[in-house]
Amino acid sequence: MATDKKTVKAKGVSMLKKETAPTVIYIGPTIAQIPLLKHTLYRNGLPSECEKLLSVVPGAKHLFVTTADFADAEKRLADQTSVEAVMYSRALSAMKEIK
Predict the structure, then answer these.
(1) 8 A C-beta contact, residue 47 and residue 41
(2) Of 2, 52, 72, 75, which is the most buried if we count CB atoms within 10 A?
(3) For the chain, which residues make up each domain, given as ranges?
């Protein structure tokens, strides 16, 4: 999640406005090896711990949801056929591979 810069003109003065990535919540399992905790909020992009998980389970990006989608995503975890539930299971299975 990259940040973009846009030029904003305020009263004749050009300034750079930094747009930040949306705040996301990790809804996957706690993975002690990297330390990645369930229900952790991330602002302005993901840290390296998250990138380690994504390198082992690329689809785990579905376990990082916006704060606006959090409640619905938690409900989808209960449906074993949802993308979130499948990625949760894969993240659990991949715990042995993550170091």
Answers:
(1) no
(2) 52
(3) 22-96
